[in-house]
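Handout, section 4.2: multi-component inputs.
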Amino acid sequence: MSTTETTESKTTDEPGGPADSVALYDVDHPAPVIEPPRKRTAKTPKASRGNFEMQTWLFMRLSGIVLVVLVLGHLLIQLVLDGGVSKIGFAFVAGRWASPFWQVWDLLMLWLAMLHGANGLRTVINDYAERDNTRFWLKMLLYAATVFTVLLGTLVIFTFDPNIR
Amino acid sequence: MSTATLEKNDSGSPSGAADSGAAHLITVTFRIRRFNPEVSDEARWQDFTLEIDPKERVLDALHQIKWELDGTLTFRRSCAHGICGSDAMRINGRNRLACKTLIKDIGPEKPITVEPIKGLTVLKDLVVDMEPFFQAYRDVMPFLVTTGNEPTRERLQSPEDRERFDDTTKCILCAACTSSCPVFWNDGQYFGPAAIVNAHRFIFDSRDEAGEQRLEILNDKDGVWRCRTTFNCTDACPRGIEVTKAIQEVKRALITRRF
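Output:
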């Protein structure tokens, strides 16, 4: 096995990074240690009992199946059948919400879609937020927005007054 | 194919052997991620160009660099035959075993990048701290747990029962799967595919009696429910274990055994 001359062209990742010649660190002063992940420290949370993660996982699958029917049906009625989107007005909404069936449909769709979306975002935040504080406040913001939207929507569906002026 | 002759012979008599052998050698550039905490806290890329048989493995190239070009290059390897799991590294952006990857298979026309596996602390060059990985492995109790008196002979098992967990017995703990998992990359708290695979190996073993305990451990916040089924682990596994399928089977066991 013969070897040729080596060309050691150094391409530093970030331009302006410390060059090879400038020894910032040596044997007695090595670079700072980066805390390895999953190291057991006093701050490591204890293992939690309970099935919350499993239940949310199951909820995502089941609500997803139901939402396919609810949302596609909703879009079909609102946008395609009977003249499409042009028919939608105050009278159309009032007419639909006079029936308990559509009230339940819309209520179910609101709750499932909001919880499904919120849980999806919760997992995204868990996966991507790097610091515990960021993660906490992002989730608080998410929960506040979810509760607000769900409650407001529910209120509107149940207290809708077709005779409002 | 098997040109794994002793390197000492080659370097000892370079004249005749090199001439006849030089025809099939090609020039390959290896772009290696170097990190030395005693010099800098920044990692950098370094190129090594060498002539090598394309039917050699990446590990042979690393050996050639370490033995003939730069002795400071640091990497792990033990058996060099794909069974000890020491030399998992990120080659051309994919986790592979350096000892099972032939140079001709990964496009030697372009520079071949070699990096340490991601998600674990780099100690030097291609060596990472495997402790978090093994901590997760220990957490799932990867050993036979039984009750009662020990039998005086083997614990017998039908071929069907053995077949149930056959795939997950093949794990060599190289960490290629866990360090290819984007969920593990983020905070490293997720158990990771390798720990789940090794839990699977005992959960579905008919002789073992602690399956429920292991399921309870993997039902935790950082257990199987964090799996997003991206299949990175299945693609990365040098042993061809269907890792994502094993994780799904653990999920299914959790659901069906609870309800």
